[in-house]
């Protein structure tokens, strides 16, 4: 780091140290345009993602597929009964 990279600005009793920018105004303008373009692309992708998610949600809602209903007791399937009996038998031994 070089001492010439800093400048003391008046405004307070001790002064404020500020790192000088090496970029020119033209470079800053190009960077601003690039960032704005990237921002627009990201916003477009975000809108597309939201649209896709909304559409998928509506499709799931319309098909009533995999609708979770918590707190409803149902009879166990035969596979679940077998597993439960095995677990009980293992605990007894």
From TrEMBL:
Feature: compositional bias, Polar residues: 75-84
Residue span of region Disordered: 49-93
Basic and acidic residues biased stretches: 53-62
Organism superkingdom: Eukaryota
Coiled coil location: none
Signal peptide: none
PANTHER family hit by this protein: ZINC FINGER B-BOX DOMAIN-CONTAINING PROTEIN 1
Name listed for the protein in its UniProt record: ZBBX protein
Organism, scientific name: Ramphastos sulfuratus
Protein encoded by which gene: Zbbx
């Amino acid at each position: 780091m070089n001492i010439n990279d800093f400048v003391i600005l008046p405004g307070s009793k001790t002064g404020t140290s500020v790192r000088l920018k090496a970029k020119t105004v033209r470079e800053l303008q190009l960077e601003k345009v690039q960032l704005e373009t990237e921002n627009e692309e990201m916003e477009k992708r975000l809108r597309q993602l939201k649209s896709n998610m909304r559409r998928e949600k509506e499709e799931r809602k319309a098909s009533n597929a995999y609708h979770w209903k918590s707190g409803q007791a149902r009879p166990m399937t035969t596979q679940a009964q077998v597993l439960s009996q095995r677990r009980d038998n293992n605990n007894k031994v």
